[in-house]
Write a structure and sequence with these properties.
- The protein has 146 residues and is α+β, with helices and mostly antiparallel strands.
- It is built from three helices and six strands.
- It has a six-stranded mixed β-sheet with strand order 2-1-6-5-4-3, covered by helices on one side.
């Protein structure tokens, strides 16, 4: 289900909506089939849409089972693009809320970098990298600097 985003900003809005709606197909529609992801959770990398689908299903299923909604905000957004490729970096804040009460449960902010490619006049994400700064004293990720 390719939605066909003519602007990079549209892809990012689709990302936010798909996470909130926990819509796996909508979420995956913005990624290339040969996506390469460096994530700060679990594995070193994720290659290909099939493996990414498994990770996304696990993520969204966990949110549903816990009765949570996840809101995504993009801050400090920088978009550089030419006619066929684009580069984006930003701070992405994920805030979890109880679905029934709207009570805020937790929040964290990651640094994200995206590589985009235009295919058939639509932008898709071909590379994604998320990271957290590390506290050198403890070796733990620093989730709340932003």
């Amino acid at each position: 289900m390719k939605t066909g985003s003519s602007k990079v900003q549209d892809v990012l809005e689709n990302y936010k909506c798909a996470v909130y709606e926990k819509d796996v197909e909508k979420f995956l529609s913005i990624y290339a089939t040969n996506i390469h992801i460096y994530d700060c959770w679990g594995n070193w990398e994720c290659k290909g849409i099939s493996l990414w689908r498994e990770k996304v299903i696990e993520w969204f299923t966990g949110l549903s089972e816990d009765g949570e909604l996840l809101k995504v905000e993009l801050d400090d957004l920088t978009i550089e693009e030419n006619s066929n490729v684009a580069f984006v970096h930003c701070a992405v804040t994920f805030a979890a809320y109880k679905e029934k009460t709207g009570e805020k449960l937790r929040q964290m902010t990651n640094r994200f970098t995206y590589g985009f490619k235009k295919v058939n006049e639509s932008w898709i994400i071909t590379h994604e990298h998320s990271s957290l700064p590390i506290d050198m004293q403890t070796g733990k990720g620093m989730f709340h600097l932003k």
